[in-house]
Amino acid sequence: MIEHSITKDIQAQRLREAIRVLVRRFALAERADISCCGMTVAQAATLEALSHGSLRLSDLGKRLGIAPSTLTRNLARLEERGLIQKQPDPTDGRAQRVALTEVGHDAALGVNRHEEAFARSVLDRLPRGSADATLATLEDLLGAVRSATESCCPGAYDHLMTTSKIDITGGIHE
Question: What is the pLDDT along the chain (174 residues), one digit of tens a residue?
Fold first, then answer.
């Protein structure tokens, strides 16, 4: 029984380290890809969040997981570049919505193409025939992470995703 516990501890350490390295590597790759598009990772994430339609400022901040002051600075830079526009919320005169402009939609598509190219290059480096199994295992891992997170911090990641199933043709289902 003690041996089983030690094995689980070692596996937990390996998982933590593997995720840490994976997250850091993707973050670095994402920054490199996005910097060539002339924007920060936060700005690119904002474009991606808005690519599905306009959002209230409060909802956008929650989805991105950033403070209102950071969101305001981020949006000001994107607005200066003509990538987003603010509009009054038709259901609440005190609130504002933010939406992509046509130029913003083009920029979001460009960032998405860079991210997909990187993901394809990763898949190309997996052993032949293992991509589907790797993606299925990753989906299982994401589901387990979500479940474990809900046990200790209910709702903590609701702004990121509502399901762990990934559709490799269209992103994460929400």
Answer: 677 788 888 999 999 998 888 887 766 655 555 565 677 778 888 999 999 999 999 899 988 888 888 899 999 999 999 999 999 999 988 889 999 999 999 999 998 898 888 889 989 999 999 999 999 998 998 888 888 888 887 776 665 553 334 443 334 433
Give me 114's structure tokens. 């860079």
Task: Estimate the crossing angle of helix 57-64 against helix 68-80, to 10 degrees.
Answer: 110
The distance of Cα 156 from the centroid of its chain, to the nearest Å, equals 15
Q: What is the pTM of this model?
A: 0.68
Beta strand ranges found along 16-66 (DSSP E): 55-56
Q: Which residues contact 121 (CB under 8 A, 6 or more apart)?
A: none
d(CA 174, CA 159): 10
Indicate left, alpha or beta for 79 from its phi (over 0: left) and psi (-120 to 50: alpha). Answer: alpha
The one-character DSSP state at 127 is: P
